[in-house]
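Lab notebook, design round three. We kept the backbone fixed and only want residue identities now. Task for the bench partner: fill in a sequence for the structure below.
Input structure tokens:
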């Protein structure tokens, strides 16, 4: 069995940048398409549709940027703490839509930034387990500064995402690419926080934990 893969800092930074760009391409592209329609069309109904597309896509792009800033960025100086209430607001903007409901059962408290970044990355992985939508239930494991997390994703044909193998640093195929880098990074965060990760199917839900 292959051992954990080790990435140097430059490769990790480049892959994370690729992942962020991948998440932003779709809504930004939709904004450009909407603007082109406004320039070329004279039909009022079509223009109204284009404006709605631009508005919705701009909101999506903003929500994804805010989420990525908190999940991947520095988010303050060394040793900074982040309010879980702010994390909840950011997560809802990114994950909750007409298909997916986020049930947030965590207390409003301050936690070390890496622990909050870990939580948001766990939510990303859990969200990938229900591509057709469903519910994400977030619960604490323990309390205080050593709090861990349990995220249960339930929905039609929920399954553990293949990229979740990278949580342990051992990606499918033996190499970390732009698809596997986010769970790989999640594993690094967990190690920094002194927590162990697991992702498994429990009944009809995929449960991702850090404890």
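Proposed sequence:
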């Amino acid at each position: 069995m292959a051992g954990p893969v080790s990435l140097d800092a430059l490769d990790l930074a480049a892959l994370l940048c690729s992942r962020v760009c991948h998440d932003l391409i779709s809504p930004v592209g939709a904004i450009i398409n909407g603007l082109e329609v406004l320039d070329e069309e004279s039909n009022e109904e079509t223009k109204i549709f284009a404006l709605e597309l631009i508005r919705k896509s701009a909101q999506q792009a903003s929500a994804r940027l805010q989420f990525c800033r908190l999940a991947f960025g520095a988010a303050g100086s060394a040793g900074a703490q982040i309010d879980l209430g702010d994390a909840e607001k950011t997560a809802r903007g990114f994950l909750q839509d007409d298909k997916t409901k986020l049930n947030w059962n965590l207390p409003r408290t301050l936690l070390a930034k890496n622990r909050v970044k870990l939580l948001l990355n766990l939510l990303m992985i859990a969200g990938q387990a229900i591509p057709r939508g469903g519910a994400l239930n977030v619960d604490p494991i323990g309390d205080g500064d050593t709090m861990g997390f349990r995220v249960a994703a339930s929905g039609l044909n929920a399954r553990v995402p293949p990229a979740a193998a990278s949580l342990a640093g051992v990606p499918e195929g033996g190499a970390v690419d732009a698809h596997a880098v986010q769970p790989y990074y999640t594993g690094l965060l967990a190690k920094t926080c002194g927590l162990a990760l697991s992702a498994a199917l429990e009944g009809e839900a995929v449960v991702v934990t850090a404890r």
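Keep this in mind before ordering anything: Helices lie at 9-40, 44-72, 84-95, 113-128, 181-193.
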